[in-house]
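Sequence only, no structure available. Ideas?
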Amino acid sequence: MDRRAQPRSSLYRAHRLVARGVAPTGWTVSIHPPGGQPRAVLRNTVPNGLAILLEEARQQVDRRLDGALWQREP
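Reply:
I predicted one. Tokens follow.
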């Protein structure tokens, strides 16, 4: 039996995040940047992992806009 959930869409820092899931196989989150830039797609196979995947998508948007975090001590 195919139990596809309806896509969920939200906006984060002008990037559209679209989450799709198929129980029990996991989740897919697409990151659509503004201005027609190429999208990124994140996937996981954890049935209850949507919150984790959305957090990773937000971190990718933050890195894209703010740059990478400083990795060393000053």
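The chain has one domain: 3-61.
Hope that gets you unstuck.
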